Amino acid sequence: TWGTGANWYTAISPNSSGAIAILGGSITAASTISVASNVSVGTLRFDSTQAYTLSGAGRISLNTASGNALVDVLRGQHTVSTPVSFVRSVDVSVAAGSSLTVGGQITAASGITLGKTGAGSLGWIGLYSSAGASSVNVQGGSLGVGGLRVGTLTVATGAAVELLPNSPASVLSTLTLSGTALLNVNNNDLL
Questions:
Q1: CA of 10: how far to CAs of 31, 60, 123, 174, in Å?
Q2: Which of 30, 60, 139, 142 has a beta carbon 3.0–4.6 Å from 51's, enabling a disulfide?
Q3: CA dihedral 178, 80, 40, 170 (to 10 degrees)
């Protein structure tokens, strides 16, 4: 359980703006962590070849006092099925050969940027929607998403974005594809 201090190396459950939650290599098999109530962190780091799954009704808010929040996947294939809120802009780094799948509801504050780096794979199963002029900037690897409702989508050379099959219509104000960037709409509507 996320809220049990004894489950964390600091003996304190991370739950504050800017807090760092490290899901490291101490597990020897796939592990599910229950997020029963809302929590806030500035950094969420996955560093295990064994799969972590975060599940439950609690919402994970990514928030910092200043600067961007960070989701960092150093190794492994991990899943977040809890609701997620981006209170500040968020950098998501997924290392080569690693993946992160987010299946819970995703909400973002107005004007934030989601930046994706690293050669690994990031999957947002649901619709990624933000109020206001938010942007998604994919600098490396791939982003699979169940629809986008943002101001700007930028995909860098060598990076890829795929709208998952049967996604709702995606709405963008600006689309920028650089060099060998790939956008696969899978017969979905892109407005």
A1: 19, 19, 30, 44
A2: 30
A3: 40
CA angle 112–113–118, rounded 5-degree value: 150
What's the pTM? 0.94
By the 8 A CB rule, do 81 and 104 touch? Answer: yes
R_g of the chain computed on alpha carbons: 16
For residues 56 and 82, the answer to whether their CB atoms sit within 8 Å is yes
Q: Would you say 42 and 22 are in contact if contact means Cβ atoms under 8 Å apart?
A: no
Tell me which amino acid residue 87 is.
Answer: V
Closest CA to 134 of 124, 148, 122: 148
Query: Which of 151, 121, 117, 154 minimizes the C-alpha distance to 134?
Result: 151
